[in-house]
Write a structure and sequence with these properties.
heterodimer; B: five-stranded mixed beta sheet; five-stranded antiparallel beta sheet; 6 helices; 30 strands; 37% strand
Chain lengths: 895, 451
């Protein structure tokens, strides 16, 4: 009897099926294994068998169950049949026989009514009701089935039908119409809850009901179990988590704005400030008087009458301004009196000024001086003051030489000549000079005290005389010295080189020559002094004298030369050795003479007053300064030559003679040249002289060596390459020093023979080798390792080190980038004014005194960057305009 | 044939006024000036030296309080005004320009611990250990103000609660303010009861700060070493980070609403990103004692800190070390610092009952700066900035004279850190690779992140 069909009932409404837990409790051995579920069985049961009815539904059900079990043991195909255990069969009595193996419930046992969790409570209630109402089981069963059928058809909960059935029993009068707001009695009874169905029912037939019902149906079908509420801390935690997520998302809106600000080269915070009182009127309107004076003024100004008068046409102002006649009269009188006094004083002064009488003025001056002197006597203060004034005047005079005919007027008069002037002018000039004298006198007197020399600081007119005196004195000195030289007897050295006979002879000769020369000089001096005296007698203090001196200086050597030339000619005639020697001596003498002459001249030049600056003089001066030096030099060469020749003696007289002739020619030319020099200081003559020297050269045969030979000869001593290598080695050693050789400390281990034999420990050697290797590598790495002729020092320059950073600074990633950042200078010398502002703009531009508000949100397009850069200038000007316009621009920045 | 002649128009060389500068025409060919770099290096060096010469940061001290200054508040609407509260319950309004008290607000029975002013500068809120919150009207600054000192004002309202308050802060552009004490309370000007209270944990709130850019976000620090963030839009706390040491004060960057910096007890300041609170973005270290207060410059590019080591320092917002240190012999423990609203000045309040005004840039020229002068300053500044990495310039720019105590303490700290680092390295070297992991400081100091 396999029936499969009626399953659909229960499958449709699984929530209404009943499950029984009592099955295990009845104590009988339950067949285990796959079997039909109870519900299905029950249905099968219901369809097929009529079981005895019991009042207790539950008991009844259990019975059904058991019956069913017992019945269907044999033939239920879904039933697994277990065989009876061996021991129970009692085939081999290995175990004791037990009466009852399983625990069996006693017959009178009543099952407790324990509601299971799964059981619907309303079902229980149902059953109670059923018990109370006392319906028989049969009808109950019938009704139940009917209800289930109805439910199956309509899809409504079973209670709906049952309730209707039950309401038959107890009637309740309903006063109000039944609706969702006034639930029916049975709903309120407690055994039934308001279901959605209840609420839906009254809506039946209305618009949208179907839709609503369908949705409810759908909901019921797909309903999900609701979890139990969380504990409070847990709940809060979840809330916070969500809140953080939201809040975080919210704050992300600032990101583009912040990014833009951070990347901006400059932030601007200088919006236009609102100066509250911008006009003078506005400020003045808020003025309040504080001091007494201000208050008084204010009370007058803000007098009501005055204000009123101002407000009207102003005629009343005149009335207010009324002054009494007496007051006005008094004021006028006072002013008149003061004016009168003033004018009188003025007139008096004018009158005094107009008086031309000199006597009057002199008297006046005298009076004044008298008063002054009296005052000086009276109090020392005034005296001091006077003295200081006087001193000041003197100092002024000394500095400016105001009264020394330096004024334009005085110069003009002097130019015209004093004699041409009238008496008064002359007197005035003399007076001026007098004044100068008086003003400078005190200084003179002071000088007198310090130095005893009288002649040096005489008057202007005496100066020329004094100068001549000085010259005389100098000549005197010179004469004295020469006399001394003559008198002194040179002791002939008794030992050394100079004691050799020929040396002694030589010295003697030299001495003689010197004496001769000295005599000559003495003659000169005498002549000079005579001339000097003559000039003094003549009394000419200016140009004439100077020219005389000039010519003297030049004329003298000329005469000398003439003399000498004559002598030369004589010498060449005689052709004697001695004469040659004499000639040499003459040469020396000549040189010295020139020197002396020049010296004398120079002394004279020094002595001469400043009036002696003539062109000739100047030319001489210049020759004296440089070319003359050369001249003397040449002369000295010449002299020494002759000296050498003299030394050579008689060896090659002929040669000497020829050369002597040359030299004579040369010397004569030289003399000529000297004359020229003295007269016009020609440079060409110098060239001639050089030629003269060179002409002496070609007498010896000479061949020019080849270039290579020359070089070899020049650098015969030094090997450059080797030197360089040595230098390089030195530098290398300095920069990479060679490691020290491993040694023991002296005395350490030396007494042990073994150790000595063993030598140094291996670690020392190893260390040494390592150091050596390191050095070699370092040398190899050097930049000049492969360059033979180059030394590149790798020494660190301390001064240059200051200009380099030791490590790459933080934001930079490469050296190039860092250097690039410093490449272009910023200054105004390197850029035009238009470009420089962009270069030196600070990171934050703000104005003092302007409140900066916190950031305000604005939409920023993060992708508009390129555009920004393109028209950055445009934007900046825009911004500026906006700011100037006073719009609400907060923290705008240019990009 | 073309003949080139020098021609100069008269207009180019004529000055409008006699004071005008003569025009100079230059050839800007770089080949003509090969020594530009050397010249600029020397100029940078000179600029750095000049900076040192003109560094006179201290402007003046404002004395008047009878006890240590515990808190300050700036008037966001009025540059010259600053409020200060002291430990004896005195509140004063100062005029910075004349360095005088403009007005006093008497009433607090205990120490004033928090001060803040509304954005329009009309209302001052104070709170203190006497468990009261007081609202005051701020006198409107006028010209006459200078001649009537010693004015005192009555409180607009007094709200008493059960617990002492430690901090108060006002919302930017809003009507709300928050107090911190046993819990965080959110108040409205017009209500006598807090409109909202937040409690997360049982520890005392030490500081409260509204985010000026995002006025609905609020950060607090508490004595459980935590920093907590609240979002008023969602009316709930959002996140809590626990550091290794207590945070004394917090400041939000006014130009970057996601960033905040915490002044910590362990001498450092930690910058956090609101989006990633687990790690500090930057550690600003230089102080040698606990950092007591912090305030951002309105430009958001730097912030000032006051420390228990008697110094005030100015840090760049993204730099690890301070760019400036201010100290005087008389300045004691600094309890509060503020950056002025124009970012030009720094005001510090310290234990010695004085408020001190400093320049934010020590060598800045005060007063009217002519355009040429300004350009020169800018040029010098950019030169210094360019050559700041060159050793000589760097040395001069960095050099600061420090009080001996602070110098020694700093050296000691450095030595200790160095020793710890060395030890760590050794430990690492002697253990299996990968076993000992050293976290960077910015990660190490955060203990936990609580959701």
């Amino acid at each position: 009897m396999v029936v499969k069909k009626p399953k659909d009932w229960n499958s449709q409404k699984p929530e209404n099926t009943r499950r029984f837990i009592a099955s295990g409790k009845d104590g009988r051995k339950k067949p285990s294994g796959p079997r039909l579920p109870n519900t299905m069985k029950k249905v099968l049961d219901r369809l097929n068998t009529r079981s005895p009815v019991d009042s207790d539904g539950e008991e009844n059900e259990v019975k059904i169950d058991t019956e069913e079990n017992s019945e269907s043991v044999g033939n239920d195909i879904y039933e697994y049949e277990e065989e009876v255990a061996q021991e129970e069969l009692g085939k081999n009595r290995r175990f004791d026989s037990v009466e009852n193996l399983n625990y069996e419930l006693p017959d009178d046992f009543e099952d407790e009514d324990i509601p299971s969790d799964d059981e619907d409570t309303d079902d229980d209630g149902d059953k109670d009701d059923q018990a109370k109402t006392g319906f028989n089981a049969e009808s109950e069963e019938d009704l139940g089935r009917h209800a289930r059928m109805l439910q199956g058809i309509t899809g409504m909960p079973i209670e709906a039908f049952e309730g209707r059935k039950k309401s038959k029993g107890n009637m309740v009068s309903v006063t109000r119409p039944e609706s969702e707001f006034n639930p029916s009695h049975n709903v309120l009874d407690g055994d039934n809850q308001i279901t959605i169905q209840d609420l839906l029912d009254p809506l039946q037939g209305k618009a949208g009901y179907n839709q609503l019902r369908k949705r409810m149906h759908h909901l019921e079908k797909k309903s999900v179990p609701i979890q139990a509420p969380l504990s409070k801390p847990e709940k809060e935690k979840v809330e916070r988590k969500v809140a953080y997520a939201i809040s975080k998302k919210e704050i992300r809106k600032w990101e583009p704005l912040v990014k833009r600000n951070r990347e901006a080269p400059t932030l601007y915070f200088d919006e236009d400030r609102d100066l509250k009182y911008s006009t003078v009127g506005a400020i003045a309107s808020r003025f309040e008087p504080r001091t007494e004076f201000e208050k008084k003024m204010h009370s007058l100004v803000s007098d009501k009458k005055v204000l009123e008068a101002h407000a009207n046409d102003g005629t009343r102002l005149l009335e207010l301004n009324m002054i009494s006649v007496e007051d006005e009269k008094e004021r006028r009188d006072r002013i008149a009196k003061i004016r009168n006094l003033l004018s009188r004083h003025e007139i008096k002064q004018k009158h005094i000024k107009k008086i031309k009488s000199k006597t009057y003025h002199r008297l006046l001056k005298k009076d004044r001086l008298k008063a002054l002197s009296a005052q000086m006597e009276m109090d020392p203060e005034a005296a001091n003051e006077q003295a200081r004034k006087q001193e000041f005047k003197r100092a002024e005079e000394r500095l400016t030489l105001k009264h020394k005919n330096n004024s334009k007027w005085a110069k003009r008069i002097l130019k015209r000549g004093l004699d041409a002037q009238d008496e008064g002018t002359r007197a005035a000039i003399s007076e001026q000079l007098q004044q100068h004298e008086t003003l400078t006198r005190k200084i003179n007197s002071m000088k007198d005290a310090s130095s005893s020399d009288d002649s040096s600081d005489g008057d202007d007119e005496d100066s020329a005389d004094s100068e001549q005196d000085a010259a005389l004195k100098l000549i005197e000195d010179a004469r004295e010295k020469t006399v001394k030289v003559l008198e002194v007897d040179d002791a002939i050295p008794s030992s050394g080189v100079f004691s050799l006979p020929f040396m002694v002879r030589g010295l003697k000769k030299r001495r003689e020559a010197a004496i001769e020369e000295a005599k000559l000089a003495l003659e000169d001096y005498e002549k000079l002094s005579k001339q000097m005296d003559d000039s003094q007698e003549a009394g000419n203090n200016s140009i004439g004298v100077s020219s005389g001196r000039m010519t003297f200086g030049v004329v003298k050597p000329q005469t000398e030369n003439n003399k000498r030339e004559q002598r030369f000619h004589d010498d060449s005639d005689t052709g004697d050795d001695i004469d040659v020697k004499e000639d040499g001596d003459n040469g020396r003498q000549y040189k010295e003479n020139i020197q002396i002459g020049i010296r004398n001249d120079s002394i004279l030049f020094d002595e001469d007053s400043h009036a002696h600056k003539d062109s000739i003089f100047k030319s001489f001066d210049s020759t004296h300064e440089d070319p003359d030096d050369k001249a003397t030099y040449e002369v000295s060469i010449f002299a020494s030559d002759s000296w050498m020749k003299m030394k050579d003696g008689k060896k090659n007289v002929n040669e000497e003679l020829s050369s002597q002739k040359n030299k004579v020619v040369k010397s004569s030319s030289h003399n000529n040249h000297l004359k020229e020099l003295i007269e016009e200081s020609d440079t060409e003559s110098e060239g001639q002289m050089v030629d003269g020297i060179l002409s002496a050269g070609p007498t010896r045969p000479y061949e020019l060596p080849s270039q290579a030979e020359l070089v070899r000869q020049a650098f015969a001593g030094d090997d450059v390459e080797e030197d360089f290598e040595k230098d390089k080695k030195e530098i290398l050693n300095e920069e990479n020093p060679e490691p020290e050789k491993p040694v023991f400390l002296p005395g350490w281990g030396e007494w042990v023979d073994v150790q000595k034999k063993k030598g140094l420990p291996s670690w020392m050697l190893k260390e040494h080798n390592d150091a050596k290797k390191k050095r070699e590598e370092a040398l190899k790495k050097r930049k000049d390792a492969c360059l033979k002729h180059v030394i590149i020092s790798e020494k660190v320059d301390k001064k240059a080190e200051k200009l380099f950073t030791k490590v790459l600074p933080f934001p930079f990633t490469s050296e190039e980038a860092f250097e690039q950042s410093m490449r272009v200078p910023l200054g105004p010398e390197f850029h035009p004014a238009t470009a420089i502002n962009d270069l030196i703009r600070p990171e934050v531009v703000k104005k003092p005194g302007i409140n900066i508000k916190p950031i305000k949100f604005e939409e920023v397009n993060p992708h508009a960057k390129d555009e920004d850069q393109q028209d950055s200038k445009q934007k900046m000007t825009d911004n500026k305009r906006k700011r100037r316009g006073g719009g609400k621009v907060v923290n705008k920045k240019a990009k | 044939m073309r003949v080139k002649v020098i021609s100069r128009s008269n207009d180019e060389f004529t000055r409008e006024r006699s004071q005008d500068l003569q025009r100079v025409f230059r050839n800007f060919d770089p080949n003509l000036r090969p020594l530009g770099k050397a010249v600029e290096y020397v100029r940078a060096l000179n600029a750095a030296k000049l900076d040192k010469i003109f560094a006179r940061p201290f402007i003046g001290a404002m004395d008047g309080h009878l006890d240590a200054i515990s808190c300050m508040a700036k008037n966001p609407n009025y540059l010259k005004g600053i409020f200060s509260g002291s430990m004896d319950g005195d509140i004063r309004l100062w005029d910075i320009a004349s360095k005088r008290t403009v007005c006093q607000f008497p009433g607090h029975q205990g120490a004033v611990r928090g001060l803040t002013a509304s954005t329009d500068g009309r209302i001052l809120v104070s709170c203190g250990t006497d468990c009261t919150v007081r609202l005051w009207t701020v006198p409107i600054p006028t010209l006459e103000e200078f001649y009537s000192p010693g004015k005192s004002s009555e409180p607009l309202a007094i709200y008493t609660r059960q617990n002492a308050f430690r901090a108060v802060d006002h919302q930017w552009d809003g009507e709300q303010f928050a107090t911190g004490g046993a819990q965080v309370d959110l108040w409205n000007h017009n209500r006598s009861q807090p409109i909202k209270s937040f409690e997360w944990g049982t520890d005392t709130i030490l500081s409260v700060k509204f985010n000026p850019g995002e006025p609905n976000i609020l950060a607090t620090s508490a004595s459980d070493r935590s920093i907590t963030i609240y979002d008023l839009r969602l009316s709930s706390p959002v996140k809590k980070v626990i550091l290794m040491t207590k945070t004394n004060a917090i400041a939000w960057n006014p130009m970057e609403p996601m960033n905040l910096t915490a002044a910590n007890e362990d001498t450092n300041c930690y910058s956090f990103d609101y989006r990633k609170l687990g790690e500090a973005k930057n550690v600003h270290k230089d102080h040698v004692s606990a950092v007591m207060d912090i305030d951002y410059s309105p430009t958001g590019r730097e912030f000032v800190t006051g420390s228990y080591d008697r110094t005030v320092r100015i840090f760049p917002y993204n730099g690890g070390h301070s760019r400036e240190i201010y100290h005087t012999k008389r300045m004691q423990r600094v309890f509060c610092v503020k950056f002025s609203c124009d970012a030009g000045y720094v005001i510090s309040g310290s234990d010695d009952t004085n408020l001190r005004v400093w320049k934010a840039k020590a060598s800045e020229q005060l007063g009217v700066v002519l355009p040429r002068e300004k350009r020169k300053h800018e040029y010098d500044e950019s030169l210094k900035n360019r050559y700041k990495h060159i050793p000589e310039v760097k040395r001069i720019v960095r050099h600061r004279h420090l009080p001996k105590l602070i110098f020694k303490a700093g050296r000691l700290r450095r030595e200790m850190i160095e020793a710890a680092k060395k030890k760590d390295e050794r430990r690492k070297a002697h253990s299996a690779p990968g076993k000992v992991v050293t976290k960077p400081l910015r990660l190490r100091r955060t203990v936990k992140e609580i959701e």
